[in-house]
Specification:
Blueprint (H helix, E strand, L loop, with lengths): L2 H14 L15 H8 E2 L4 H4 L2 E8 L7 H13 L11 E9 L5 E7 L2 E9 L31 H15 L3 E3 L4 E2 L1
Antiparallel strand pairs: 1-3, 2-5, 3-4, 4-5, 6-7
Helix pairs in contact: 1-2, 1-5
Length: 181
């Protein structure tokens, strides 16, 4: 198992610990925020975006109207971006991050006011490169106007699945205050 895969598995175990019916007081709790941040980089990531091709997307309209603010909060808490741009609230990029090894890249955007995730990977791991870069359709839909999911790299798929799960799973960010989002 690669280092990226190990880090992803640690985060997913940390996320799953909240769903346990019985909690052992002696249990070693995983700090899922630290585990998530160990999977990503947020500083000086522009060079990593240069050779990447869009390979898929996820739109929050799939999980309900109330999920955009919750998903955005979850990602802001987990990623901790140093800069967020709300310059274009209709269709625009808010912030981005990459896998810790720089191979995979995520932009967190708004598409018609709804939270959207766009995924990028090296061109050699894209199945249908002719479909890459098409972003006229709603994110996450397999239509002629969106490129769907075209990634062959299993680590990339695991990384992007982890990001979607992090953004769409109810989490307790401030356990002392029982603050679930």
């Amino acid at each position: 198992m690669s280092e990226l895969q190990e880090r992803i598995e640690l985060y997913l175990r940390g996320l799953a610990q909240w769903n346990q019916v019985e909690v052992d007081d002696d249990m070693d709790w995983i700090d899922e925020q630290a585990a998530f941040r160990a999977c990503i980089i947020t500083d000086n990531i522009e060079p990593y975006a240069v050779d990447k091709v869009q390979c898929g997307s996820f739109g929050f309209y799939h999980v309900g109207d109330e999920e955009t603010p919750k998903g955005l909060f979850r990602l802001l808490e987990l990623v901790g971006p140093k800069k967020v741009s709300f310059a274009n609230m209709y269709k625009g990029s808010l912030f981005e991050f990459a896998s810790f090894d720089g191979r995979f890249f995520v932009t967190v955007e708004l598409f018609k006011h709804e939270l959207s995730l766009y995924f990028y990977a090296p061109a050699e791991s894209i199945v249908n490169e002719s479909a890459s870069g098409i972003r006229t359709g709603a994110p996450g839909r397999n239509t002629d106007s969106d490129n769907g999911w075209h990634l062959t790299d299993s680590e990339g798929k695991a990384f992007f699945d982890m990001v979607v799960k992090a953004a769409t799973t109810k989490q307790n960010f401030y356990s002392g205050n029982d603050f679930w989002v």
